[in-house]
Write a structure and sequence with these properties.
By secondary structure, this protein is an alpha+beta fold. The protein has one domain: Glutaredoxin (3-Layer(aba) Sandwich), CATH 3.40.30.10. It contains five helices and nine strands, in the order αβββαβαβαββββα. The chain has helices spanning about 25-40, 80-95, 115-125, 140-145, 190-205, and strands at about 50-55, 60, 70-75, 105-110, 130-135, 150-155, 165, 170-175, 180-185. The strands form two sheets. A seven-stranded mixed beta sheet has the order 2-1-5-4-3-8-9, with helices on both faces. Strands 6-7 form a two-stranded antiparallel sheet. Helix 2 crosses helix 5. The two termini are about 20 Å apart.
């Protein structure tokens, strides 16, 4: 399945939020390292985690065992990439029909300071009621994001006290056992995702 991602490699250049032009060299180096680890296939991607959902309940990755998981890291104030990718995930769920019951979309906020439980609950419901939204402490968030090779950093535009988050934006595909399978770059169509999600459902059946 990973070989099917090769046509998307060029799209990785668009994986950064609009703050990319303001990012400093050390942070870009860290981003490049994580991207290389993700693409090389030589580094371990993913792993167990426990965070709080939009109802305030602690949820672990193991809670979703038996389903194929679509995992996305973003933040609610994101003006473009995040809502576009989450909308694509919602369209995918609609395309899956009855098989959608075997798929779990999960949104993990990279901005726990602003993305409260109530805010997350309303946000993901606007895409699909089946979405699970998760948040943790700053330390928990950094740990989980790093495991999935997701780069992010707060960026303050000149003269502004309000920050946005510069981040890589991938949709991670996990099998029924919670193991990393592949990733979808920003802009991947629901039709393309459906092909690979259905392959994952068949590959991990039983």
């Amino acid at each position: 399945m990973k070989s099917r991602l090769l046509p998307f490699v060029g799209a990785l250049l668009t994986a950064f939020h609009l703050g990319g032009a303001l990012a400093e060299a050390p942070r870009r180096a860290d981003s490049a390292r994580l991207m290389n680890e993700l693409m090389s296939g030589r580094a371990t991607v993913g792993g167990p985690f426990t965070l709080s959902d939009q109802a305030g309940k602690r949820r672990s990755l193991a809670d979703f065992r038996g389903k194929v998981v679509l995992l996305y890291f973003g933040y609610i104030s994101c003006p473009d990439v995040c809502p576009t990718d989450l909308a694509a995930m919602a369209q995918l769920m609609a395309r899956m029909g009855s098989d959608a019951a075997q798929v779990q979309p999960i949104f993990v906020t990279l901005d726990p300071a602003r993305d409260t439980t109530a805010v997350m609950r309303a946000y993901v419901a606007g895409f699909d009621e089946r979405f699970v939204a998760l948040r943790g402490t700053e330390v928990e968030t950094r740990r989980v994001a790093t495991r999935y090779k997701t780069y992010y950093e707060k960026v303050y535009p000149p003269g502004s006290s309000t920050y946005f988050i510069d981040h890589t934006a991938y949709i991670y595909l996990l099998d029924r056992q919670g193991r990393y399978v592949a990733f979808f770059p920003p802009g991947t169509t629901p039709e393309r995702m459906e092909v690979m999600v259905r392959e994952a459902l068949v590959a991990t059946t039983g």
